[in-house]
Amino acid sequence: VNRPNLVYRVEEKPYASKDVLTMILSVIKQNFSGKSGIVYCLSRRDAEDVAKFLAENGLRALPYHADLSDEYRTRVHQQWTKGIVHIMVATIAFGMGINKPDVRFVIHHSMSKSLAAYYQESGRGGRDG
């Protein structure tokens, strides 16, 4: 994605899953408190677990994946768009058609399935310049 306002940062992923969650929580709280963002996960289970952990630690985060009802996904997307929910923890199901201008961060909990998927997911951030 060729947008000068985007900054890419690579972190070594800790081995223990609890440490990964703590690292994501720390990055968000230190750099993006109260800001809109997306945490991408490869599996639906990870999306549920990460969202639960973030919410239990004081962040407004909800999961979004294909196993959830259309009604739930619509409601959660609207809450995120309005700023009621700050963080969508999602699988690739949360991708095409997402055009929220004030997304301040995109974190990948897991590797994307492909470089094309990574490109699309990371391109959700900073659309307002």
Content-based structural category: alpha/beta
Q: Could you name the ranges where pLDDT drops below 50 across 5 or more consecutive residues?
A: none
Tally of individual domains: 1
What Rg, in angstroms, do the CA atoms define?
Answer: 13 Å
- Looking at the structure, the CATH topology is Rossmann fold
Order of helices and strands: HEHEHEEH
Largest sheet: 4 strands, parallel
For the record, the CATH architecture stands as: 3-Layer(aba) Sandwich
Helix count? Answer: 4
Q: Kindly report the spatial arrangement of strands forming the biggest sheet.
A: 2-3-1-4
**What amount of the residues lies in strands?**
5-15%
CATH homologous superfamily placement: P-loop containing nucleotide triphosphate hydrolases
Q: Shape from CA axes?
A: globular
Number of strands: 4
- What is the helix content? 25-40%
Family: Belongs to the helicase family. RecQ subfamily.
Domain Helicase C-terminal: 20-129
Subcellular location: Plastid, Chloroplast
GO molecular function: 3'-5' DNA helicase activity; DNA binding; four-way junction helicase activity
